[in-house]
């Protein structure tokens, strides 16, 4: 996992709010990138830095919910915290269903926003760890040949060598060799362990 200092991306069309939030996060040791207009953040392009996004709901041209969707479509993965003086329950529900970590009504206290950011950064770290683990699994399975992939799937279903041979129309002895190769390449000792690896691979990170 990267030890890079987290970045808090702040989006608010109120210059005074943008400055105060930026200073607050900088004092707490975060890197801060501020955007006075939602279009400026989209023009910035997706960042790969660990962090989160703190944004207002009511902004010109694109509101917070529209920006949330646009960021995801553009490839931003950082969790989002909303702050707004104009929020309501249906809007908050929509934001949370779309993946927001929190929806804070203004006026918001320093403690509330810092707690929400800490929660968002924790989620970001968890999601990055899951993505890295998934990539490691993909690398392990990429060592299998196409035929070994077929055998692997059938092994995970609990089929015996004879059954796999009948399924694939090949010799039982050949399947035995392929089974040993699969288990060795994936560094597993049992069918149950292989099945768990496949289940994790098939899950979205």
**Sheet/helix structural class:** alpha/beta
- What is the CATH superfamily classification of the largest domain? Response regulator
Query: What percent strand?
Result: 5-15%
Helix content: 55-70%
Looking at the overall shape, the CATH architecture of the largest domain is: 3-Layer(aba) Sandwich
Number of strands: 5
Q: Between the first and last Cα atoms, what is the distance in angstroms?
A: 15 Å
Which sheet architecture does the biggest sheet show? 5 strands, parallel
Mean of residue pLDDT values? 90
Rg, alpha carbons:
24 Å
Number of domains: 2
What global shape is seen?
A: elongated
Order of helices and strands: EHEHEHEHEHHHHH
- Report strand order across the widest sheet: 2-1-3-4-5
Contiguous low-pLDDT stretches (5 residues minimum) are: none
CATH class of the largest domain: Alpha Beta
As for the CATH topology of the largest domain, it is Rossmann fold
H/I helix tally = 9
Layout of secondary structure:
Blueprint: E1 7-11, H1 15-27, E2 31-35, H2 38-44, E3 51-56, H3 64-74, E4 80-84, H4 89-97, E5 102-105, H5 110-141, H6 146-156, H7 161-168, H8 172-186, H9 191-202
Parallel strand pairs: 1-2, 1-3, 3-4, 4-5
